Amino acid sequence: MDPPTQISHLALDIGGTLVKLVYFSSNGSEEESRNGCCSVVKGRLCFAKFETRKIDDCLEFIRFNILQHSGVQHQNGAVHDYLSVKATGGGAFKFADLFKEKLGILFDKQDEMHSLVGGVNFLLKTVPREAFTYLDGQKEFVEIDHNDLYPYLLVNIGSGVSMIKVDGDGKYERISGTSLGGGTFLGLGKLLTKCKSFDELLELSHHGNNRVIDMLVGDIYGGTDYSKIGLSSTAIASSFGKAISDGKELEDYQPEDVARSLLRMISNNIGQIAYLNALRFGLKRIFFGGFFIRGLEYTMDTISVAVHFWSRGEAKAMFLRHEGFLGALGAFTSYETRSNNDSKPQHHTVQRAILNCSGDDSFRHIPVTSNLNDSETIECSISLV
Q: Residue 341's domain spans which residues?
């Protein structure tokens, strides 16, 4: 008989649009560490997400899938004891009373920027084949030289967008941002189409053609390039620009074309602002994260093309397989203090083989051969001391 699942170390990132969860699920295997100073529990990091407007669905998931396996809740749902949980994002403040009342969970609040940076550093240093590029339909994983990781620019695309210059562990500065992010895409998308969710809007945009609505350089120059300044005929001169002169109403356009144009507009804007900030500080490495991307090839290609165009090929956009869980992962890595249900402090470390690059090329590229969506869990272990 398989040992019962034991779940611990729940961490949440509660944003304006989405709630992201990370938690450790033990496989029942425990052994002594090499130096004998602690026991090591093996298992997997698991991930889940919910729309913030459906916070009750998140509460039910935690109640029935996590608390009943954590040793702090009876099968009948009664709270046995309060559970201290790491949480970050604005919702850690907004929903603190709700989680305490409904689940007996006390939030140990973590700084949002610190958690984002901690989550990215955690992934880049411990999870192989985490970072990759996507340009012109080509996906390539990127090996990271941990001795030459910093500095880099982190572009986190949530409801809004934050751009953070990272100089080392715990060394970072928010240098810019924009209010045009995932929340803008979903908000305008709901007003302009009949979509009710982020995933529905993304799926709709996948079938659209932005050229029906966007004004291209070729539309202005009679189908030709403006080669003198490096603009091709297919470059977008004005997002939604054709709506000015088409003489059409909103209902005359296909909703998938509207969604596609909206996605292209926001992605282009983010890519351009990101590169300009990288140029401002002399940064060559730009990592994009946040659930706006969702591994969608069109979004990644749009951002990559924008960075490539404005940098004249000198900079590359890089993406992360666990892009949407950066804040939650950063909060997870902060489990170092005594919780209300522990008789002794607990520390954890994720143990994975770290890739080392050879030669002087600190970012050697490898063709992608695995599915970028196979990121539901990460094998790891937790050290209890």
A: 6-113+327-355+373-384
